[in-house]
Design goal:
By secondary structure, the chain is mainly alpha-helical. The protein is 46% helix and 11% strand. The longest helix is centred in the first third of the chain and has 24 residues, at 3-26. The radius of gyration is 15 Å and the shape is globular.
Amino acid sequence: MSQRRVGEMHDAIDRVALLVRALRSRLRDLEIRGAAAGMQLLLMLPNELDDVEIADAARSRGISALSPLHLTPRPDRGLLLGYGRLPEPSINGAVATLSTAIAASTGKTQATKPRHATPTERSH
């Protein structure tokens, strides 16, 4: 494996770690799936939320999140978030924008309040 490819892999690992920390900080009640699986992850939403509406709201704010999660109708809701081309300096702002879109959909503002990472979360 080339040195350049190894560097790209480390960059992707750093990006996903930063993305997961930002999601846990702003959207702490939502489950994250598949962070170790590739260049995207699933952000699971409560079943009562409309993932398509949230994806549209995020898109209108400049954030692309793919939805629906399944090809056939199911009660599970979620957003597929790709991070392969997301520059690290943009991650926190993108998550804040996504958090605002989710909060607007739920009519709540608590989802947008960040919390500070615990020492365990900072070390991952």
